[in-house]
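Take a minute with the sequence and fold tokens given here and flag any structure token that looks odd. Thanks in advance.
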Amino acid sequence: MTTQARGARAPAPRRMAIAALALIAALPTSAAAQAEWPGHPIRIVVGFGAGGGTDIAARIIAQPLSEILGATVVVENRVGAGGTTAANAVATAPKDGYTALMMSNAHVIAPVIYKSVPYDSVNDFEMISMVGTAGLIVVTHPDFPAKNLKELIDILKASPGKYNYASPGVGTTQHFAAELMNQMAGVQMTHIPFRGTPAALAALSGKQVDVVVELIQPVLGQVQSGSLRPIAVTSPERFPSVPEVPTFAESGLPGYDVTSWYGLALPAGTPQPIARKMTDALRQALARESIAQQIRTAGALPKSSTPQELKEHVAREIKRWSEVRDKAGIAQQ
């Protein structure tokens, strides 16, 4: 039997085996992590307190996502700076699929109302899918003389600056929705900001303000009881919970469309296999009638999308509200 000379090359089969082992050893650990994902709990970060629309949307989808993905999905509230604290936490989180952001209109309003935010609202996030949409509604006190949108616009045009509207704060969706109404209808309502929706609605009930544009769910009980008068919904179609209330288009102001929305995103750079798994899981969750019904009960409509559609929506909304801000002269903070 002969021995192989020192320095001689190993036989071809052996060289191939050694090369294969070396290739496996050289594979990035992230490849194995992607194959095993999810291997531990996933966090959905919400930039607002428990019980709000964004929080409710996150909690509704957390349970079915846990079942579909086979890993616990928890909701974490990180309140602060109009949702930017939570968004920044996700934008700078590890790109491993274990930290997601439940976005809402606040995600596109933040770069419009703040002079600077520490992240790019479009490009620092791996968009997953829309979750749902929610309409807003224009309401007045029952004693206010206008009974529909046409009458309201006629009254506002007859006395520019005489009437006002309340919002839950500067830079909120409600604030911008009312300013867009001002611009498209050619009227001049004065903005009176309050600290939150309950205070704004209390002022309307007390006749301290004339008009409020608000999400449907917080005013639904008062509309149904007759303590507030509905004028029009801001969505392009009538909303199921108030089917008798016409849209702006039906009321003579076509093109007006303001819809609140919720969407899920991961940090930009998250491996595509993980992002695709999350997108597929969310689509399956939203397809469940029990989940869709929970979203409807919360005052929204279930809606899924492709990641690209959500990305385009975010970019389009930032551009749109920037134009409304500039035209209305809303100062950045």
